[in-house]
Amino acid sequence: MNPIFQINEAFTCTEEGKLRVQVLLEERREKYQVEARLPAREVASLLPREILVGDTVTPDRRVLEPIDELLRKLTVGRLVKVWEYSGRTYCSFLKWGALRFDEP
Question: Cα–Cα distance between 11 and 70 in angstroms, integer?
């Protein structure tokens, strides 16, 4: 079974002018830490671009501060799976099918 990680910290950064989201993860059993990136599809599900920056393609960098705060509230404590692609470490949220609800 692949290890499951918990997000302990999340923050935005820019790379070549593009928004990226980095997260600091902790493996739940062995308690080691890994830094990873959220893929674009995960970022889009958390941070709807149209709401946060409108139609502009060159938003003011000051918008990153409230985005960081929102991002922390939406991600810290959540569980993710980790994988590598093209030499980078990525993570994504667990699928709905992996959830098990307690029976009443």
Answer: 10
In three-state secondary structure terms, 91 is strand
Q: Which domains does the chain possess?
A: 5-94 (2.40.50)
Whole-angstrom CA distances from 80 to 3, 22, 95, 104 are: 9, 13, 9, 27
pTM, two decimal places:
0.82
Sequential DSSP letters for 19-57: EEEEEEEEETTT--EEEEE--HHHHHHHS-HHHHHTT-S
Per residue in 25-38, pLDDT tens?
A: 999 888 899 999 99
